[in-house]
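Q: What does the assembled structure look like for these inputs?
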Amino acid sequence: MFPQPTEPTVAEPLEAVDSDCPTCGAAAVFAYRVVDYRGWLRVTKCRSCLHVLDSRRIRPPSRSGVA
Amino acid sequence: MTVQQESTRTTAALSAQEVQARYGIDLTAAEVLRHALRYIALQMQQKVNAAALSPLLSEMNDFGIGLLAPRDEARDLDFDAIAMSTGAPAHFVINQYYARTAIEHWGAENFEPGDVVIYNDPYRGGSHVNDIGAVMPIFHDGRLLGFAASITHWLDIGGPIPTGFGPGLQRDVFAEGIRLSPRLLYKRGELVEETVELFTVQTRIPEMSANDLQVIKAALQVGVDMVGHYVERYGVDAYLGAVEYTLDYSERAVRQALLEIPDGTYEAEDHLDNDSAGEPMLLKCTVRKYGSEIEIDFSGSAREDWNGYACQWSDTVSAAHLGLQAIFLDSVPPNAGAYRPVHVVAPPGSCFHALPPMSTNSGHLFFLVKSTTLVKMALSKAHPRFAVGENYDDICIISFSGVDNRSATPSPFVFIRFPLGPFGGHALGDGCSYMPIEEGNAVETSIEFEEEAFPLLFLEREFVTDTAGAGKHRGGPATRVLLAPLVDAESTYQLEQCRFPTKGEFGGGGGSMASIRLHEGGLARWSRGEELAEPQVVAGFADPADGSPADPDDERAEFRISKLAGVRFAAGDVVAFQVAGAGGYGPADQRDPEAVRRDVRNEIVSAAAANRLYGVDLGGPTSEGEA
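A:
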């Protein structure tokens, strides 16, 4: 079971990636979780041109604990 | 596992030669089968409409039903949704997660012809416990060619609250009613009585459940049989090629529509009226759009809260897709291909992504609608032609339940109504006055049916003057319904925009706020043709001294929570349920004076407001006080 978050608002944590976007050159590449049409992914992605550098299937966070 | 992005990024229509080369099928057959898949889903829907006892299924269309692809790695198919009926769109996208998760759990290799597996655990890619998922395998010559799948909203699912919606009273998921991991409803075509008994013993609608569980099977069987018909006629390879073609067709259509939206980052902010403590909940959305890709991010929104103030991530994703598709000028056939260009960020622990054991039964509705609205609000900033004023922004509920003791044989009843409301003004014209929210597309149950089936009367259902957001293209007006239970009843109500008015766009004005008010014992006065007595505020802003309606700007006014369960109303009370008016589009002084005059004739706008808001003098009183 998960406790209620303590902070009043919640944001997806962005992991900085030491790389510029190979497509647009922007320093806006982060690793984070998204949902695509088949479920959960951890992506490394440019937030400027939305180019996906890497993408891996993960379990939905809500299924990672006891449910 | 690294994910390869296999899908086509092209938006151009394919030539007949390209279709043949890519899918191994000629273009004519591909188009015939693409339409056939949708037709099959519609036939499945008709079966539910015709045979179900629950008015949510027979009358309202509060369900989704359709077909899933098989798993075929070479064709990039993975039990994807390939066709859905026209029922509630909230269910279109959910099957991508709900049904596929259930199939994974059960094991695709464990299905046999005639099996039906059902489930309703919202934490398995679902929505809320009332939404019963079901899948039935489609076999041809022993080969699994996919599934028929459905989601049907059950009128009652047990637990402490009739109808299942218990804002404020269902602290966690364990208080919501029966929760089923995937299990057999039919085994090789034979009904599994133990599963049926879960519904007949633990819900308040045993007879209805016993019938409608069999209706689910019958409708899924229609899908299985009709796919079999087309496979017999065209062959397995052509069928699978057409499935691929159908998915790619919708993807191309969405990518083409996305190209019409200017690249950029667009933000929106809104609030839910209250959390479980009565405080507003901040809701945020950032839409990043580039080329034919889009990312919809709900970071920065309020944390989840107990007692129903959160929803499942799968609901949020589903609603985000609907918000996006709502701004497209052309509709796109709903299937998994249409969802490929979209990424959604749903932060775990936020109100848009409940973590167990949060209750999500009520929040399913609150945040489903809000996430669609946020996407539309954000994209309204992309270009005026995509802009639309805020609609009534809710799948609102009023329910009465109890025992009808007016005859010698008292009988329990569970009544629920989802009142509809107005939409916002937009670039092309005024907002609609009365229609279901995007997620619903549900038909409102007929008043005559409900008065016959349940111990209640509808005294009024009317548009309310001067509630529409002003603008070049005004929003739709609010509608007020007066309901009178004829026996003592317990009620659940959920109504949004009781604290904040709806928003206009591009200089358009906001609409009126929603409210629920009680005319205690009002039915007797109404029956005598007298005016109803002054109301008490049930939901909205009240004078704390006497409970009468109060001006929201009055600092003494108290806000009464607009989402509660277990509230008692007495026989003969009159409950006034008024949804919000919708927001307008564009400055009011740009509205065609003739349109203003028409609004006055139709009592959408008063003569005084026509003068004050639009500068149109009809020669009557110039302020509400003079009316």
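The interface with chain B takes residues 1-2, 4-5, 7-12, 32-39, 41, 43, 45, 47-50, 52, 54-57, 60-63, 65-67 of chain A (CB under 8 Å).
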